[in-house]
Structures are given as structure tokens and as C-alpha cells.
Design a protein that fits this description.
Number of domains: 2
CATH class of the largest domain: Alpha Beta
CATH topology of the largest domain: Spore Coat Polysaccharide Biosynthesis Protein SpsA, Chain A
CATH superfamily of the largest domain: Spore Coat Polysaccharide Biosynthesis Protein SpsA, Chain A
Number of helices: 14
Distance between the termini: 46 Å
CATH architecture of the largest domain: Alpha-Beta Complex
Number of strands: 19
Strand content: 15-25%
Oligomer: single chain
Length: 485
């Protein structure tokens, strides 16, 4: 056997096949299950399964069952639609080397080490029904599947079609058919249940000599999505297995803060948040958005400092100038229920947070603006539309922040404020103080750097949108991002 079948299944016409170099076509057979018309790229195109209504589940039919679709082949190599081969295609020697002791090989996950953590992330990003994911994870808990047993990243799967692997394939497909469409949630469980093992391909999917992962649409990513460097770790701040049945991610208040190389100011914020336990009955959850910081990552500060309330850190990978609208959209996208948005240089101390977040005083048809004062003398600060409390339903109704303003300074908050005022009633909370930090107290309280605070360009955009009645923004999250803590 001098050849191997390299195959993929694509459930969306937005994904793209990578062309196969002419020289490779004699060394491997390339098959793509796809319903979109394509020019000759070196792939044999076959129709995608129509077994399910869910296109992703149809793609999983092919992923899980290569021995059914290629009964004449002894070996197969699955590639996710977002993966391409960057070196020469696998040859007989390569196959033998990686399947020397096992009948199956894949990459270890570059970040996570536990399928329960994978379940948490899938809930956070809403990759599938919350009820389905929770039910499946609870099933694994009840069957005593252990924590931290390892996690495969099944975007590449090299298989020898032995009887053991065929049994694994079919058992895996049954899990996908009956549970979550996210087949990576069930892979390690099935391997464990069948008392099998798999080999590891060298490196990770983002750091290896054979494969490269590109944009994967359909998972809530932008077109420019690039994967996190392996040196940045993603950790859940919850013990995975024993807490999985809890009502994860439904805190009544989410606090969205933006960060851009403000380590000292972030440390001051964390000190403020750490005063909340014991004062607030229901603790809020912080969604901290690192807006492409080039020097000091927000996740490093949070890990070093430690926080007594729940914190999730998301990082925007490109360093887009003045991307306030995009960063706030990223935070609000992951928020639920009530959302409090703030710049990094304003402190909401515990007594004020307790007053502002008091549930009985909140009305979903209103949005709330606290008073602002400068520290240390408590001098009155101009009324700010940066610090707002509003319900997620109103954010969704008006289409979020307008990212047409990204790249230049100013006006995105005013635009959002004007549109929010059309669907909700403004309430000024004079009993709640927001304390604005200055550079005299914290040197990096405001974003520093060579960027100009020139509103000329965005003022023209604002005037145009104002004349059009502030239309609903389009195409949010126009950048690559990921959760990093």
C-alpha cells in the first residue's frame, strides 16, 4: 500500500478547500465530501451526507466512519475543513512511523487537558445546546470518567481500519448521533470506555511541520481567525468535573472591562473587585477584553494577582487602533442578562456595585448611568456614557456597538448611547459613584502610546449615521479573538 486516502467533509460553502499540488496527487488520494461546486483543486468531490438536518452532524458522519466510505482502504487521514497539509503528503513510511504501536493517532489538545473543560468552553461559546452539553457531561460524570485524563484535538485523525478502530468509529458516531454534535466532547470518552489508546502526532495543530490550520467558519469566528500561540494557556477557574452540573454562566450581572497595556490600572481594578465578596450577595462576573495589547497581556496580570470573583479573559489578536466598539461587542457577546460596560480607568467600589446591581431596582426597559467623580479629591467629572448598565436584550435589539468607528478615535459610545435611547429609558443613578482614576494616581490609567486622539474622521462617520437615523450596525466581531483565561 503506497497510498493513503486523505479526506475531509465541509458543511458550509463559506469554507474553502486548499488546492492539492499536482505532484502530490500521485502519492495520495484526496476526497472531499461537499455539496458546493468547485473548480479542479485536486480533490475528488463527493456529496455530503443528508442523514441529519444539522449540517455539522452530517459532516461528522464522514469524520467518524471512514471504514464505511472507504472500505477498500487500509488507512485514512481525516483533515478538518480548516486544515491543510503544508509539507509533502503522508507516505507509507510516515504512516508506519505514527501507527507503529497504535491503530490511531491524533494531536493532543494544545491548551486543554480535560473533556470537562472542553464542555465548559463549549458552553461559554454556545457551540451547541446548553441542555445537550450538560446532559452529556453529566452522563460522563455518572459513569466515573476521570478528570484531566487528556484531550485530543481531533482536527487530524490518522487511522488504520482495524476491527478495533472500526468499533471505535461506530461507537463514537453513536455518541455524536445521540448527544452533542461536538464530536471532540465524546472522542476521549469512547476511547476510555473501549479500553483503547491512541498515539500522538508530534507537536500540536498550531505548531507542527506537517499541517496548518486556517480560518474555520461556522464556529463564531471572524474570517481572520488565527489560533492562539501555545505559550498562552487557557485555564478554567472552576474545578471541572464535580462542578459541571452547576448552572454555569448565568450570573445576573456581567461586567465588561477593556484593557490595553494597563497593568497597573488592572491591578487596581482587581483590588476593587476583590472587595466585592462579603458586600455583594450575588457576585458579578467580569469579562475582561484584552484589546490586542502588544506588551503585557491581561491574562498574565489576572493570574499573577488573583481574583476573588469570577473572571474570564478574552484576547483580540490584531492590534487595531481604537477598537473600543469591537472590544465591547466581544464582551457583550459573551455576557448574559445584565451588562455593565466600563473603561479600565473607572472604579465601581463594592457599596456602589451593590446599589447599582440591586435586582429589585432594575427594569429591562431602562438603562442606567451612574455619577462620576475624579479621584482623589472626588471632584465632579463630566457625565460619562462609557459606564452603562443595560440588559442584553436591548443590546441585541439595537445591534450592539458599531465597528465602523474602529481604527480611529471617538464617537462610538455616543452612537451606541443614541441608539440605546431609542429602545430603553435612561435612568441616572445619582446614588452610585464611579471613581475615575487619573495618571497622577496610576500612571497607565489611560491608554498610552503614539496613537492620536483625533475625532475628525469618526465625527464625519457619526454625522452621516445621524442623518440616516443611526441604522443598526452590521458585521460585528470583525477580528480574530479567543478566550485566554
Amino acid at each position: 500500500m503506497d497510498q493513503i486516502v486523505v479526506y475531509t467533509a465541509i458543511s458550509s460553502c463559506e469554507d474553502r478547500l486548499q488546492p492539492v499540488p499536482e505532484a502530490w496527487r500521485q502519492r495520495a488520494r484526496f476526497v472531499a465530501f461537499w455539496d458546493c461546486p468547485q473548480p479542479d483543486l485536486g480533490w475528488e468531490i463527493r456529496p455530503l451526507s443528508k442523514r441529519f438536518r444539522d449540517l455539522r452532524r452530517n459532516a461528522s458522519v464522514h469524520k467518524c466512519l471512514p471504514h464505511v466510505f472507504f472500505p477498500e482502504e487500509e488507512y485514512s487521514l481525516w483533515l478538518e475543513g480548516s486544515v491543510s497539509i503544508v509539507s509533502e503528503p503522508p507516505c507509507r513510511e510516515w504512516i508506519k512511523r505514527h501507527l507503529r504501536k497504535m491503530d490511531l493517532a491524533t494531536f493532543k489538545h494544545r491548551i486543554r487537558k480535560c473533556l470537562y473543560d472542553e464542555g465548559f468552553i463549549s458552553l461559554d461559546f454556545r457551540y451547541d445546546s446548553e441542555q445537550v452539553i450538560r446532559k452529556q457531561m453529566q452522563k460522563y460524570c455518572d459513569l466515573d470518567y476521570p478528570e484531566s485524563k487528556g484531550l485530543a484535538e481531533c482536527v487530524v485523525l490518522l487511522r488504520r481500519h482495524s476491527r478495533k478502530v472500526q468499533r471505535l468509529n461506530e461507537t463514537w458516531f453513536n455518541e455524536v448521533k445521540q448527544g452533542s454534535v461536538l464530536n471532540q466532547l465524546s472522542f476521549d470518552f469512547v476511547v476510555h470506555q473501549l479500553k483503547l489508546e491512541y498515539g500522538l502526532l508530534p507537536g500540536t495543530i498550531s505548531n507542527n511541520r506537517y499541517f496548518e490550520r486556517h480560518t474555520h467558519t461556522g464556529m463564531g469566528r471572524s474570517e481572520n481567525f488565527k489560533f492562539m500561540p501555545d505559550k498562552i494557556s487557557l485555564k478554567t477557574n472552576k474545578p471541572a468535573r464535580k462542578h459541571f452540573p452547576a448552572n454555569h454562566g448565568n450570573r445576573p450581572i456581567n461586567m465588561v472591562f477593556l484593557y490595553y497595556d494597563n497593568p497597573q490600572m488592572l491591578e487596581a481594578q482587581i483590588d476593587c473587585w476583590n472587595s466585592y465578596p462579603g458586600v455583594l450577595e450575588n457576585l458579578p462576573e467580569v469579562l475582561l477584553i484584552d484589546d490586542g495589547s502588544p506588551r503585557i497581556f491581561a491574562a498574565d496580570i489576572v493570574q499573577k494577582k488573583g481574583c476573588r470573583i469570577p473572571v474570564k479573559v478574552y484576547r483580540i489578536w490584531p492590534d487595531i487602533p481604537w477598537n473600543f466598539a469591537g472590544a465591547r461587542n466581544l464582551g457583550c457577546f459573551h455576557a448574559r442578562n445584565w451588562i455593565y460596560v466600563s473603561d479600565i480607568d473607572t472604579l465601581l467600589q463594592a457599596p456602589d456595585a451593590r446599589a447599582l446591581f440591586e435586582q429589585r431596582r432594575l427594569n429591562e426597559e431602562c438603562f442606567y448611568i451612574p455619577r462620576r467623580v475624579y479621584l482623589p479629591e472626588l471632584k465632579k467629572a463630566p457625565a460619562g456614557i462609557v459606564n452603562l448598565l443595560f440588559h442584553k436584550s436591548k443590546y441585541q435589539e439595537i445591534g450592539g456597538y458599531d465597528e465602523d468607528y474602529a481604527g480611529h478615535y471617538g464617537k462610538e459610545e455616543t452612537d451606541y448611547y443614541e441608539r440605546l435611547g431609542k429602545v430603553a429609558r435612561q435612568v441616572v443613578r445619582k446614588d452610585v459613584l464611579i471613581r475615575v482614576m487619573t495618571k497622577d494616581l496610576v500612571p497607565d490609567a489611560r491608554t498610552i502610546g503614539p496613537r492620536l486622539r483625533d475625532k475628525t474622521y469618526n465625527t464625519e462617520i457619526f454625522m452621516h449615521k445621524q442623518s440616516a437615523g443611526f441604522p443598526k450596525p452590521k458585521n460585528p466581531l470583525r477580528f480574530s479573538w479567543d478566550r485566554v483565561l
